[in-house]
């Protein structure tokens, strides 16, 4: 079993519990918003990720940093959840827990998640047009587009919707051309 699948198995119960409490508290949107902003901070700061994952840094130090960073930035419920994760020595799984929580929330709200990787940043107009096309393809009313840039694509984009992949990148076309030329 891979390290990632073990992390996923550990993260899912925390995400499910968080979702259940958020539903009971009627704070689903606020919780999702708070967790999204925390996820953004984690993705932008590799040092912060490493600090939370470092077992040599004590629990009181991690709690103090989280309280200073997130007091008045996120709800008390989320701050207490973060402190709970520190106590249980699961704070290193925070990004995975947030990812699982958001996926569960999207499923609950019947939102189709589409991951867009492009060589250059898409404009808002381009994103909206792509979302409209994805709505037609998936027959879904709600589409959440998660964007990232990948210079390895050379040009174009790749969209992942569940297990489906739409590769309209230059790198993908070159790969197909190479495969075709090597088989003949």
Automatic annotation (TrEMBL):
Which keywords does UniProt give here? ATP synthesis, CF(1), Chloroplast, Hydrogen ion transport, Ion transport, Membrane, Plastid, Thylakoid, Transport
What the entry lists under InterPro entries is as follows:
ATP_synth_OSCP/delta_N_sf, ATPase_OSCP/d_CS, ATPase_OSCP/dsu
Tree of life domain: Eukaryota
Subcellular location field: Membrane; Plastid, Chloroplast thylakoid membrane
Any GO MF annotation of the entry: proton-transporting ATP synthase activity, rotational mechanism
A GO cellular component annotation in the UniProt record? proton-transporting ATP synthase complex
Known Gene3D superfamilies for this protein? N-terminal domain of the delta subunit of the F1F0-ATP synthase (1.10.520.20)
Q: Where would you say this protein principally sits, based on its record?
A: membrane
Question: Which one Pfam family would you cite for this protein?
Answer: OSCP
Bilayer topology annotation: Peripheral membrane protein
Function as written in the Swiss-Prot or TrEMBL entry: This protein is part of the stalk that links CF(0) to CF(1). It either transmits conformational changes from CF(0) to CF(1) or is implicated in proton conduction. F(1)F(0) ATP synthase produces ATP from ADP in the presence of a proton or sodium gradient. F-type ATPases consist of two structural domains, F(1) containing the extramembraneous catalytic core and F(0) containing the membrane proton channel, linked together by a central stalk and a peripheral stalk. During catalysis, ATP synthesis in the catalytic domain of F(1) is coupled via a rotary mechanism of the central stalk subunits to proton translocation.
As for family, the record states:
Belongs to the ATPase delta chain family.
Q: How does it assemble?
A: F-type ATPases have 2 components, F(1) - the catalytic core - and F(0) - the membrane proton channel. F(1) has five subunits: alpha(3), beta(3), gamma(1), delta(1), epsilon(1). CF(0) has four main subunits: a(1), b(1), b'(1) and c(10-14). The alpha and beta chains form an alternating ring which encloses part of the gamma chain. F(1) is attached to F(0) by a central stalk formed by the gamma and epsilon chains, while a peripheral stalk is formed by the delta, b and b' chains.
The protein here is known as: ATP synthase subunit delta, chloroplastic
Q: Which species is listed as the source?
A: Bostrychia tenella
What are the leading ranks of the lineage? Eukaryota, Rhodophyta, Florideophyceae, Rhodymeniophycidae, Ceramiales
Q: Which gene encodes it?
A: atpD
